[in-house]
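Lecture 7 notes: from sequence to structure.

We start with a single chain of 314 residues. Read the sequence below before looking at the structure.
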Amino acid sequence: MSGAASAIVFAYHQVGVRCLRVLLDAGVRVPLVVTHADAPGENIWFDNVAAVAAEHGLPCVTPEHPSASELLAQARAAQPDFLFSFYYRQMLGGDWLELPARGAFNMHGSLLPRYRGRVPVNWAIIHGERETGATLHAMEVKPDSGAIVDQCAVPILGDDTASEVFAKVVVAAEIVLARSLPRLVDGTARLTPQELSQGSYFGGRKPADGLIPASASARQMHNLVRALAPPYPGAFVFIGGRRLVIERTQLAAPPTAIPGTGLRLASHGGQLWLLAADGSALRVLRAHFDGDVAPLEPQRLAQQYAGSTITIDA
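Now the structure, written as tokens:
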């Protein structure tokens, strides 16, 4: 592919790192990289876009807001062919979308039009989806609604956590961008309008949203646990006023019936079990109380609470 094309790049997170590397590997000239300064207190488990920019000698900025007039002026002076957004966390207004001569494009972590909006991998797992992927699409002021350039699907296995699925989505994003770039540059890319009625828009999630509902089935609990497993904040319940974070579970049935009703935690047969109100069950592979370094062990539960079956706080 010709190296004559240029692109302003907004990027963050692992998709931002890998897609920036794809552009550079393809010979695209990048006169400006816009990223975020890592937020204090956030668990930064992904690679750093600014470090990649520095490695390649690219101008890189971390503005609090991308709408700053000085930043727009700097970008206009570069006269870019394209603008790409790869997991950048802020919306870009019309001034940015109209700036590149040949279009603005975003990489989204789902198979659009499904799971438009925030944290699409986590939402897909919460809803029990068996596949997701990455989609490159034209940017419009309405988020994640522009015509599709290309997309690539990846499987979601029944026990996959969000971080495991996200790793697949990162590779899917690389594939999509690498095979789309030649067509975008030579003008032969054929875009497909989205049928927005075939999907929904989802908002962001907060750590408090990890509370396991008392009415959830074992499968619903399992999906929430794996969607929020480390490095995410975690799914949790309260026992005696203490927050118990459930890190890993497995859909299974205990060898014999465990007495009780409602949502409850049990030490049974040398294993931990999370029992749903409807009678379905999960084997708890790893869990910990807030403030405890060591994971909760079955025998410790029985000793600490003077019983093998503990009712979970409503």
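Residues 162-186 form the longest helix (25 residues). Keep this in mind for problem set 3.
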